[in-house]
Every structure is written in structure tokens, then in C-alpha cells.
Give the backbone structure.
Amino acid sequence: MFDTLLIANRGEIACRVIRSCRKLGITSIAVYSDADAGALHVRMADQAVRIGGPSPAESYLRIEAIVDAARTTGAQAIHPGYGFLSENPQFAEAVSAAGLVFIGPHPDSMRKMASKAEAKRLMAHHGVPVVPGYTGTKQDASHLAGEATKIGYPLMIKAAYGGGGKGMRIVTDAAGFAEALAAAQREATHAFGDPEVILERYLERPRHIEMQIFGDHHGHTIHLNERECSAQRRYQKVLEESPSPFVTPQLRAQMGEAAVAAARAVDYVGAGTVEFIVAADGRFYFMEMNTRLQVEHPVTEMTLDLDLVEMQLRVAAGAVLPTDLLTATPLAQGHAIEVRLYAEDPQQGFLPGSGRLTRLRLPVSSTHVRVDSGVEQGDMVSVHYDPMIAKLSVWDSDRERALSRLREALAECSIRGPKSNIAFLEQLVRHPVVVEGRIDTAYLDRALPEFLPADTPIPDHAVLAAACLALLDDAAQAATDTLPWAATDAWRIHGRDHQKLNLHCRDLAYEIEACGHDGHYAIRWGEQTRQVDGAHFDGSSLLLAMAGHTLRLPAWIDGTDIELHHAGQRYRFTRRPSYVFETAQTESADEVHAPMPGRIVLVKARAGDTVSKGDALLMMEAMKMELTLRAPRDGVIDHINATTGEFVEADTLLVRLS
């Protein structure tokens, strides 16, 4: 086993590897960019080395800088994590050339899987089913259009290199092919440095099932069951689970056999994933192989009681895979589900966010709940990297109980700073297609409004709970002040008076009068009057006793910010002074500004052009996604302040209409 290991990555995967190193007594070395100088993985590691500027190209993608960091610190091996250089054969070769061990497959195995076109040809040769399509090297638009006609519509255009949903487009008819092809090639060039694409027949309403594979240096190759990843948005996984509610024991055996055949075809060593697209009738086809650990590996670990990172390290050090795994594929015990908490705004097309996490409350890890995060409260979500805040994984004896655990765990989460997708996830895990296990890969994109939080009426219990939280917080603050006039119980010589609260939620204002103290209140607003027989707040939940019954709600209060969770919905109240002067705010309909820092990838309009409201003016790439900026109204373009390839800061004026 290694004495010292360098992790060539950041965020939650770096923290994950550091924890496994601690378990095995291995000294961990982190690398960091200028943007990550104070990041959690740097604080957790035994040592840390700066490798460059804030962007990935200046730091986490610099092969020489990472290898030099390993040399100077005396590391014996490098773990690549996932993303960045994890599937880069040149990096693996550079690690080996430096006399270090690369925790992953051989570079030749990576190369065989790097191109989706080459991978499909290789898999077909080894008897692994592949989706019919075009994987040739002739890439001019007219030839590809001809091949698309042969395949038939609908079809999928995919970047031949890379993954993560980049460079992928579904085309429903010939009229839309040219534009979709150009967009896929452009995105593939920016993301992977190569515009080559492949064409595949598009399967209607398919499932996405992946098999965890593992190989060692002694010729053993196994699979460790499946994970279902059919809940996707724009080809990005949203929810993963194991075992799949769709897969039968017979289908699991068939897919496992195909996955092992795929791994053996490239002499695979270490942890990897073979991904399949599965039709409604159970026919499955090879999609791609990820030659690294996957983000969703915790659900496999939780159902099989394994540590896949520890297995990676042991296999890389020359150990044989565990005997019990070689003799039979282990049966999943119970059910595990994972979701990813992101700094993004679902109401604005899931626009990625950035900024300081002024509040980050996540569940406490236990037998049933696991939290993997690369940030803590007070940390920054950087504009330079993926905006994932944490992975939330749950386990229980069956799928129904696991879903219940996940709902409870999400209710315990609270994030302030950049906007998050928590409310979206809470809708997702209650939706019938998820509860009944029948979601397909395109369902979220077809029916996204079903998953966005609706502006339902604010229930009286939510208003009552917010008022009690404010009153209890006032009392707690006053208790720290020994001066008699600091008390907030409205005491008067002739008896206690009413206290007044001004609470706002969404666009509604609540003028509240409360009488009482120490958790016993009479509360009135509008035509409502409620008696609270006892209220208690323990810092994370509020207990209300009233009219012979009690109610417990997950809740938080920070100054004027109140958040609570009731009946599956999340409510945020803001406490304001009784008299507030609000200035009117207006938004210009004549200007288009950059919604966040990013790079301009395409300018589609020119000064003097006549445009209609909603016309695409330019496209920018930010935080791993491509954004289309559109005309805010009908008009004529007066000025464009953007050029292709330019990096712009947030709020930069890009287009002005005359």
C-alpha cells in the first residue's frame, strides 16, 4: 500500500479520497488553484500545494504542475478523481513516466474508450449490443446529413469525445439537422477540443442503466450491479438509485455479462462504469464506458457495504479483488438513492450560481443518510467550476422507505447565498413517475413545469410558525442582555401589551399582532386569530402545541431571514420593520446583460439588425453550460459589445436596442 497519495482534483471527490486515505493510514496531499486556496479539501488534507490560477486551464488541467507537485512532496501515487484529467491518457502516461502510480486504468484502455465512435466499433466486435448509427470519420455537414437520412429520425447527435451531456442534440426531422449539428460541433470543440460527432438512432422513452465494473492486475474482471440514472435534465443526471426498479434479475445478469465483456475488451483495471441505454421492451445497447469512478458511486457502496475508493487504492497497489466478489456477484441489500444539490436557479432555466454560502445546513450523516460535500458554511461556490454543493445519499430496507428518508433529509437542508435546486428536488422525489419508478431519460425535459415549485397559497400554519420563530428569537436575543429594558415580552405597568411583527413571504405582507411570552401566544393577522399553547425551537426544528395537537416543522432563523418546511413545501419569510420605504425598481427592456461571468461562443446578430422579442442574439458558455441570450423586445440593434471568444464579467452590457 502507498504511504503518500496526491489527489489531482478538488471539491467533494477530493474530500472523499482524503477520507479513504485516513482510513488506510495514507498521507494525503491536495492540490489547489488560487480560487481554492481556502477550500475544504485543502483544509482536510495533510499537505496542500498550489498549482496555478483560478481557471481549470491554469491549474487542474496542468499535467506538468500536478506531476511536479507529486514529485516535490514525495507522493507515490496520484488519484485523478472524476472530471478534469481523470480520463486523460496523456496524464496517466505522465504519471507513470515520473515513476508514480496512476489510480486508474492503463492509458491504452482510456484511448480505446475516448472516442465514442471507436468504442462502438470495438464493442460491436466483442459482441456487446450497440445502437445503430454512423461512427465514420467523414465529418462534413452534407455527408452527415445523408447518413442521418439513412438512419432515420428522430436521431441523436453526440460528440465523439467527452461526456457529461456536452455536444449532444436530439433532432426530430431533417429541417432541424443543420442547426443542431452546428451547435453540437461548436459545443464539442469548446468542451473537448474536437468537433467530431457520431449519429445514433434515438430510442423513444429509454432508460439509462449503468453497471459498475472493477478489474485488477491479475486478470479478474467483475461487475457490482447496476445503478439507474434515468432522471436526467439536458443529459445531466439528477437522481441515481440502486437497484433499478426496472431491471429484472435476468436483465441484470445479461447486462452484467455485457459490461464485463466490454471491460475485458480493453483489459480494464480499476473502477469504471459501462453505460447502457435500455428500450421499454428490455433491449439494451452500449452507450459508453467511463474509465473512472462515477459521481454516483455512493449508492453502490451503500447497498453492497463497500468502499470503492479503498478498492481502487488496493488494486492499484497490486492487490487481488476480494475473494467473495470473485466467486459471486453480491446481492444488493436494501435500496439507495442519491441526488445532487447544486447552486442553480430552476426557475431561470437552471442558471448556475456562484457566491458565498452564508448558510449551509445539511443532515447529519448516519446509517441511513450520507452527505458528500466539498464546501462548508462560509465557503464560496466558484464561478470557475461545477456548482455542485453536495451529494445527498440515503439508504433503507426498500425503495419506498428510501424515498421517505430522502424527503426527510431534503427537508433538513437549508442553503442561503446562491440560489439552489432543493425545492426542485423536493418536487422530484414526490412526483408519481419517480415514486412509481417509471421515469425515462427525456421525461424531465418534456414535463419540466411539473417539477418546478408552484406558488401554492401560503397556509395559516406556515404564517403562525414564522411568527412564533420571530417571537422566540426575540426572546432568546433579549435573554443575553441583562438590562431590564431589553426584554421583549411587551410588559407594561398595566399589563402586557401586544407585539407587532411585519413578515413578508413571496409578494405577500403579513401584519401580525402577538400577545404572550415564553412560547405561549395569542397571534392575530387579518381575520385569523390562533392560540399557541407552547412553542419551542431547538435550532433546527420548531415544535408547536395548539388546540390539542402538536406540529413539528424543520425551521431556521438568521436575523431577519426565516425559513421553514411544512407539508412538503418550503417557505421563506423576511422580517421587516413596521414601516419600510421601498423604492420602485425598473428593468430596462433595451439592454441585454451577461447573467454571469462566461465566454462568448457565438454572436448571431449585428448592429442594425431588426429583431423580434425572443430572437437569439448571442450565446455564451458559463459553468459547463451554454446559455442563449435573447432579445427582450421587438426592435433594432443599436450596439453589440461582444466578440466571439471574449470572456465577460457578470452584468456586462452586451447588446443595446435603439
About this structure: The longest helix spans residues 460-479. The longest strand covers residues 221-233. The domain at 4-103 is CATH 3.40.50.20 (Rossmann fold).
